[in-house]
Amino acid sequence: MEKWRATSNLRRSLKSVLNRRLSPGSDFTYFNEKRSFPARFNPIRDQRSLREANAIQYRYFSSVSTLVQRNPSFSTLNSDDISYFKRLLGEKNVIQDEDRLETANTDWMHKYKGSSKLLLQPRSTEEVSQILKYCNSRCLAVVPQGGNTGLVGGSVPVFDESSGAKGSCQIGGNVSTNAGGLRLVRYGSLHGNVLGVEAVLANGDVLDMLGTLRKDNTGYDLKHLFIGSEGSLGIVTKVSILTPPKLSSVNIAFLACKDYSSCQKLLMEAKRKLGEILSAFEFLDNQAMNLVLHHLDGVRNPLPASMHSFYVLIETTGSDESYDREKLEAFLLSSMEGGLISDGVLAQDINQASSFWRIREGVPEALMKAGAVYKYDLSLPVEKMYNLVDDMRVRLGNLAKVVGFGHLGDGNLHLNISAPQYDDTILEQIEPYVYEWTFKHRGSISAEHGLGLMKANKIHYSKSPETVQIMASIKKLLDPNGILNPYKVLPH
Ligand SMILES: O=C(O)CC[C@@H](O)C(=O)O
Ligand SMILES: [Zn+2]
């Protein structure tokens, strides 16, 4: 009955094709708008002793071992510094307003909170260069900030570092964090799409690597050091980037699978049968779907007959409508006949398409609304990845909800643990277990969100000691005083 309904749904919806034009650059935009949520900090214990120790304790990590000590070699901002920046940038680009500083000092997750007293808004490479030259000579630490939408505390000041450029999600931030995104399965990572970079080093030198050549084999390709280095080696001021042509035919299906193994087989079939038109293959489990339906206004379940264990969103993008439609239709029907899909619908217009995406993209927002959330962004072999979610459920029992979703097409699991509040008992069940599990399966502890502050001290789970040593030497070479985004990426 269910299968019949689904097949008829699919057949019906396959009659019309969705045409949706992607806006330029949208493939690389991670979160393109800032959203605000109520702060949900747990009280920090013993504030005074932390201040005396010149240390900070993050709300998320309430155990003592995660204290971060302020680097004693950094200077403290004084009135001469502020006068210098005002002369350089003009009064209105030197921000000391408390509300604006509060926003810059707080990350998107409301987990990390710094105490920077100054936000600078440079408008040119030359101004960035002058700022860094000055800060380097004074040993003032700097946190480059784009849209401040990161999920690992990479763009918030930890102590009193001066903040750099600020606005909405920006291409410099995307490149600096090698932001992943929903269509990596089709377009690849920013390492493959960035043709050139201009970066300003800590001493103010401008490194011009802003080529547009597709082929350039003249030795070390240094631009890759700046892609994904989270502002720790330099500030990216310009990029040349591939912009794939807008494609006119976009189809989106929202499907249900009875178990994880069906999702996995469906992915293999999609890669094989849809080939180059497959532009997204996303999944969410039952827990994720429940959260979205419960916490987000106006979201409807497109498959309301019954709740399923897993949901998959498949998008194809191409330029030949009838070819794309036939290919997707054949794929969906054969997958349904083969038992890989238990129910499904295909968007018939732009509103339906957006509503399917809203479900998938709404998961992080729903998690935020549900309470405290522990986030893990893991690259793992697709066939093993959901075992970790199951293991975590056993470990946590009734303590917390374990939610699995992510970019199945890229082997990227977003494991999120949702609880009413942050709690050491929960954290002890999760860490280091999650990291050890990932290490054992030769995965990565950060598939796309970076290391930031949250995982700087965990880097050894994904990089060998020799590699970390070379990374530290590169950091020392390019930023000898360590002023650029301190306490992030490398162990502190
Ligand atoms: O919140 C997360 O864990 C993932 C956020 C983002 O990378 C996504 O894919 O929605
Ligand atoms: Zn993601």
UniProtKB/TrEMBL annotation:
One of its GO terms (molecular function) is FAD binding. Residues 168-246 form the FAD-binding PCMH-type domain. Its cofactor is FAD. Keywords: FAD, Flavoprotein, Oxidoreductase. It holds the Pfam family FAD_binding_4. SUPFAM superfamilies: FAD-binding/transporter-associated domain-like, FAD-linked oxidases, C-terminal domain. This is D-2-hydroxyglutarate dehydrogenase, mitochondrial-like isoform X2. Signal peptide: none annotated. It catalyses: (R)-2-hydroxyglutarate + A = 2-oxoglutarate + AH2. It comes from Durio zibethinus (Durian). GO terms for cellular component: mitochondrion. Belongs to the FAD-binding oxidoreductase/transferase type 4 family. It comes from the Eukaryota.
